[in-house]
Write a structure and sequence with these properties.
- The protein is an alpha/beta fold and 518 residues long.
- The protein folds into three domains: 186 residues, 3-Layer(aba) Sandwich (Rossmann fold); 189 residues, 3-Layer(aba) Sandwich (Rossmann fold), CATH 3.40.50; 96 residues, 2-Layer Sandwich (GMP Synthetase, Chain A, domain 3).
- The protein contains 15 helices and 18 strands.
- The protein has a nine-stranded mixed β-sheet, sandwiched between helices.
- A hairpin with a 7-residue loop joins strand 7 and strand 8.
- The chain binds xanthosine-5'-monophosphate (XMP).
Length: 518
């Protein structure tokens, strides 16, 4: 059977911060879409036989000296094209229309009035006035020959253009952002009705194909997998289990830095959903010993990362004979690490899965989630029968509680932190607020504060509560939790956690703060 990524959409990335969002919105229509650098090799793009092309937005003006251009093959391909913002300006400029700097930069919400239907057009089924999101300096003054105007906004007389015969369209606004109310419908019209893509990119189809691919890659040989407890590694494990269950050995290292009941839950969930072998290594003493008297955050990270690799290597050597290492690498990791699919991309942050295992382990990688976004991994997890609590588990950093236990990491302080964190998350869950936050936790501060408890002066530790809302974890807003919920968490923590006499709530955005405190 054909690869179900075939027959989707290729997105040429002109540097917009929203490019990945375009791919996600299209994939929500069960059509595969992947971003490529705008100057990517044409053959690499055509390997997946796309049925349409989207040109993303970008920070340049088409008149900039080194502005990225439209590759010749795009128009020669005869495929439908949708240009978004810079993509639209580029189409206009290349096809002989006119793009000029606007007197006012248009940024933010705008109303788009559509005034013409173009057969199977972008706006079929949508109201005449649409709330849209604009972010541009240049604007189209004259459409290229053969194109007609599809609508206007206050600042853009040609806010959408189209050529019915060529099936080339452009929109000045951003249909991929949620501020554009019917944006997803516009993208759906493009991929389903203009490009005629088959909506076959589903969790079910993905699983079928991933299982076949794993079987083909692995054959009868053995695979090891580092289980972290996160959704990515759990879904990877489940796929491997389905494909080559009796050849898989999963390794779970308990570093003593996990949250309340977490190691037990990871092991229980694994066994409940997989028949494959799981080796659990209790290395908590080793980790705590290595962290004794260490207070500097980066040193904590380094010690934990290195020790993790050592313990994993030792355990893998004991199990023996594996030729493959399965990892829960997902698409944003690939994009951010400027993987081989994106040679020109700027390296934002190198992700080291399974703690950055050394290359001399000589294991071939199996990465079935390599092309999935997080929300797709969750859908696949649900389809595979994993429980909601696992599938919606919030991200938890590799160094675990060590970077939330500010200052020294001792068993006593970790226990205090574990209790406070558990109480906070329980309270949020009871108020059905856990899913409203992207990440929430308690941290133990490295200060002691004066308090009074039952006529006694206390000099004890302070806990910080952190809850954030974010889509991409690169920027974040602090969650506006109701005062009553914060009051309940605070009161339970100071009453139930010995050695804590004060609770504060972190009201800082990222940037300038980060989500974690260390
Ligand atoms: P920051 O604190 O940088 O966190 O705003 C962004 C996201 O990354 C997680 N994080 C880590 N994950 N190892 C990890 O595996 C780390 O050292 C690490 N530091 C931060 C953090 O929990 C948040 O989701």
């Amino acid at each position: 059977m054909a690869d179900n990524r075939h027959g989707g959409i290729a997105i040429l990335d002109y540097g917009s911060q929203y490019t990945q969002l375009i791919a996600r919105r299209i994939r929500e229509q069960n059509v595969y879409a992947a971003p490529y650098p705008w100057d990517a090799d044409e053959d690499a793009i055509f390997e997946l036989e796309p049925q349409g092309i989207v040109l993303s937005g970008g920070p340049n003006s088409v008149y900039d000296d080194r502005a990225p251009t439209l590759p010749n093959w795009v128009l020669h391909s005869g495929l439908p094209v949708l240009g978004v913002c810079y993509g639209m300006q580029l189409l206009t400029h290349t096809l002989g229309g006119e793009v000029h700097p606007a007197t006012d930069r248009e940024y933010g919400n705008a109303t788009f009035h559509q005034f013409e239907e173009l057969g199977a057009s972008l706006f079929t089924g949508l109201p005449p006035d649409l709330d849209v999101w604009m972010s541009h300096g240049d604007r189209i003054e004259k459409a290229p020959a053969g194109f007609i105007s599809l609508g206007e906004s206050d600042n853009s007389p040609l806010a959408a253009i189209g050529h019915a015969d060529l099936q080339i369209y452009g929109v000045q606004f951003h249909p991929e952002v949620t501020h554009t109310r019917y944006g997803t419908d516009i993208l759906r019209n493009f991929v389903l009705h203009i490009c005629h893509c088959e909506p076959h990119w589903t969790a079910e189809a993905f699983i079928e194909q991933a299982v076949r691919d794993i079987q083909e890659q692995v054959g009868r040989r053995r695979v090891i997998l580092g289980l972290s407890g996160g959704v990515d590694s759990m879904v990877t494990a489940k796929l491997l289990n389905e494909a080559v269950g009796d050849q898989l050995t999963a390794i779970f290292i308990d570093n003593g830095l996990m949250r309340h009941n977490e190691p037990e839950n990871v092991v229980r969930t694994f066994h409940k959903h997989n028949q494959a072998e799981l080796i659990t290594v209790d290395a908590s003493d080793r980790f705590l010993k290595a962290l004794a008297n260490v207070t500097e955050p980066e040193r904590k990270r380094k010690i934990i990362g290195e020790l993790f690799v050592r313990v994993f290597e030792e355990t893998a050597a004991e199990t023996g004979g594996a030729e493959f290492l399965a990892q829960g690498t997902i698409y944003p990791d690939v994009i951010e690490s400027a993987g081989k699919e994106r040679p020109a991309a700027h390296v934002i942050k190198t992700h080291h899965n399974v703690g950055g295992l050394p290359e001399d382990m000589a294991l071939e990688l199996v990465e079935p989630l390599r092309y999935l976004f997080k929300d797709e991994v969750r859908r696949v997890g649900l389809q595979l029968g994993l429980p909601e609590s696992q599938v919606w588990r919030q991200p938890f950093p590799g160094p675990g509680l060590a970077i939330r236990c500010l200052g020294e990491v001792t068993p006593e302080r970790l226990e205090r932190l574990r209790k406070a964190d558990y109480i906070f998350r329980q309270v949020l869950e009871q108020h059905e607020l856990l899913r409203e936050t992207a990440q929430c936790y308690a941290g133990l501060l490295s200060v002691r504060t004066v308090g009074v408890q039952g006529d006694q002066r206390t000099y004890a530790e302070a806990v910080v509560l952190r809850a954030v809302v974010t889509e991409d974890f690169m920027t974040a807003e602090w969650a506006r939790l109701p005062y009553e919920v914060l009051a309940e968490a605070s009161s339970k923590i100071v009453n139930q956690v010995a050695g804590v006499n004060r609770v504060v709530y972190d009201i800082t955005t990222k940037p300038p703060a980060t989500i974690e405190w260390e």
